[in-house]
Amino acid sequence: SRLPSKSALMRTDVMMVTPWLAPIVWNGAFNIDILNAQFHKRDVRIGLTLFALKKYTVFLKNFIETAEKYFMVGHKVHYYVFTDRPQDIPSLSLAEGRTLNVTEVTSYKRWQDVTMRRMQIISENCLQRFIYEVDYLVCADVDMIFSDHVGVEILSDVFAAIHPGFFQLPRQKFTHERRPESQGFIPKDEGDYYYTGCYFGGTVEEIYKVANFCHNAMMADKAKNIEALWHDESYLNRYFLYYKPTKVLSPEYVWNNYYGSSVYVPSKRFVHVEKDYVRIRSD
Ligand code: UDP
Ligand code: MN
């Protein structure tokens, strides 16, 4: 699966490129050795932002341990963990060239606010430190594990991942925010893909724009007592409608076993962990 295709024709069963000519990353579409050599030449530094507030600290150990095995192996990786419970962060051994930094942040009562405020924290940290410390940022949910290779093939100026529940559905079925009064509004006949809110990334400059837009949109809605249907995910989808991602990740890169399996996704590289929603989100 790591070999390049011998023919100039690649997979024909799935879309390999968006209508705005951004690559869609599928298994078999790239040669990782060529890509690794290119990114090593640039000595690229990759930051991974993770939020583990309240009971979500339980997910960190498996996340980091599987990331050590599969995520950007051989490259410089900085894990940035944001938490309200620094004493609950386990100490984990990391491979050479990889560091983990814990930053204490204040929590919010509603889980929706915890997930949405990630955008504010990401945007502030882009200016304060990420810009000095890393070249790319990957922003991920913490209730996930890696179970196969995820490497530099995902990196681009700004990338988004197709939500595993929507890649075979027509855009009318996408669960975008449809109320025009919300800053997350997307008209019924618009929307390119339904992107997941749990995984996106890009250069620090681009992620600053993404996170800053989403945070401001949420604050504008909050002032009017509106909250978009799927919280940060809705605002992110709105941003990506008007500022198209330069790379799109197939659902291999963010699977959820709730959707079973798909012949189009032979490898589930990054998978949501099952959780008891009520219990894990309670105080
Ligand atoms: N989160 C957290 N503590 C909470 C709620 C959410 O740390 O109490 C963070 C965590 O990183 C989580 C993300 O916000 O992965 C998104 O929330 P969740 O995973 O519950 O959303 P879902 O994937 O179920 O839509
Ligand atoms: Mn999640």
From TrEMBL:
GO cellular component: Golgi apparatus; membrane; vesicle
Gene Ontology biological-process entries: carbohydrate metabolic process
Main location: membrane
Topology class, membrane: Single-pass type II membrane protein
Source taxon at top rank: Eukaryota
Annotated UDP-N-acetyl-alpha-D-galactosamine binding sites: 56, 141-143
Name recorded for this polypeptide: ABO glycosyltransferase
Species this protein is from: Leptobrachium leishanense (Leishan spiny toad)
Lineage: Eukaryota, Metazoa, Chordata, Craniata, Vertebrata
